[in-house]
Amino acid sequence: GDSVTQMEGPVTLSEEAFLTINCTYTATGYPSLFWYVQYPGEGLQLLLKATKADDKGSNKGFEATYRKETTSFHLEKGSVQVSDSAVYFCALSESGGSYIPTFGRGTSLIVHP
Amino acid sequence: EPEVTQTPSHQVTQMGQEVILRCVPISNHLYFYWYRQILGQKVEFLVSFYNNEISEKSEIFDDQFSVERPDGSNFTLKIRSTKLEDSAMYFCASSVGLAGPYEQYFGPGTRLTVT
Hints:
The complex is a heterodimer of chains A (about 110) and B (about 120). Chain A has about 110 residues and is an all-beta fold. Helices cover about 0% and strands about 50% of the residues of chain A. Chain A is globular and about 45 Å long. The N and C termini of chain A lie far apart (about 40 Å). By secondary structure, chain B is mostly beta strands. Helix content of chain B is about 0%, strand content about 50%. Chain B is built from no helices and eleven strands. In chain B, a hairpin with a 2-residue loop joins strand 5 and strand 6. The N and C termini of chain B lie far apart (about 35 Å). The mean pLDDT of chain B is about 95. The interface between A and B is medium-sized, with 24 and 27 residues.
């Protein structure tokens, strides 16, 4: 079945550092890929998505590129801020069947001033 | 901005007791969902609900679980006889259309602790 694997956290960075959170997936078809973010005390929010190979999703300075050849969708940001501290979830959704997203475990990001 | 709300934020219950977790989805949304996340594990889909009936459910969603939309605003998850392994964060979500093509909006979660 479908699955999503994320790097273990927490990831601890200083402000303005470069961020990469790795995500790889296994899917039978042609999934759409998502990153969700959960800030403390809030629900998961869609951060960005990509619906086909080589698409790049971007939002709030975050980017992720849909790499079919490596089945990856790594999240990157060039310069993190303290306000980016949150839990980040990678997810996929298959078209042509159930659209219910399959999530990873989440990666906690802690950014220090 | 409209948001999904969940109550309570934390529920502690004894094994064997019934619990009801409550959610208020966004008012014009038509699809409703429950997910759970056991500590340190993946967010897992439990059930989706549309037009007053279950549209999809996972293997986790056995006879101990039920969902209901008792009025025009609330969406509830009931666990009839809680087990220790039901301890988890439970997330409610809603979407205006089918999840995937349409964005799901999540609540902040209810942390259920079964002792």
